[in-house]
Amino acid sequence: MMSILTGASSDNSAFELKGRSQKIMYLCIQQPDMPILIKQMREQLGNSPVFFNNTPVVVDLSAIYDSATPIDFGQLTNALIELGMVTIGVRGGNDVQQRSAQQASLHIFPLSGDETITPQAVPPLPSSPCAKIITETVRSGQRLAVKGDLIVLSSVNAGAEIVATGNIHIYGKLRGRALAGGADNQSARVFCLKFNPELIAIAGEYLVNDELPADAINKTCIIALQNDLLTVDPIGTFTS
After folding, report:
1. Does residue 20 carry a pLDDT above 70?
2. How far apart are CA 232 and CA 215, in angstroms?
3. pTM of the model as a whole
4. What is the pLDDT of residues 165-187, one digit of tens each?
5. For 49-78, b where at least 16 C-beta lie within 10 A, e where not — what string?
6. Do the Cβ atoms of 45 and 52 come closer than 8 Å?
7. Other CB atoms closer than 10 Å to residue 87's CB: what's the count?
8. From CA 69, how far away is CA 196, in angstroms rounded?
9. Positive or negative, the Cα torsion across 208, 78, 110, 26?
10. Are 38 and 52 in contact (CB under 8 A)?
11. Residue 64 DSSP one-character state
């Protein structure tokens, strides 16, 4: 993994930002002190809002596994939003840290194959056979996270986020972010009547808006994961 940006180059550095590709960044927390962490993030990253526009971020807790200092994931998420980044989950960390992340409706992503998974790691939330039905528009700033399938009988506005461990069905416009399949449900699908999201994800694989195929924008689409790549299949056009 190549380091893209780092905090101050000293033993007092609170974080290091890494990326596997342009699609996703990893915020590797090295100090859990929230005021210091957020201060350094603003100082080091605040001058690059265009570079980080809607970049999905996973918070890596591996370096602070032994820390008993609680992490305010709500505060951290808000700080990342200010910097143009979207928090989509965490990886690593101890049992308490991961449960705190789950309480903040963040996904738990497994460590990669060349890293050791700690014995206390909380497993991903299991998919439920039940489906949650939302009849109203999901508005900007709202975030909905459910176990199982999520059915939205309206639209998802820009700035809103919906998350499900199962499939996602959107019978309206998708302008915000939709994350299906939790951490490892690769068979999950997203079905969308009018497709133009800020971010779309299935089981940890992501595409942001400027990476979407042009022929899929505002079309009726099925999004699936095949061979570790997201596929966007336009199946028609909806007009009203």
Report:
1. no
2. 10
3. 0.51
4. 899 999 899 999 999 998 888 99
5. eeebeebbbbbbbbbbeebeeebebeebbe
6. yes
7. 23
8. 40
9. positive
10. no
11. G
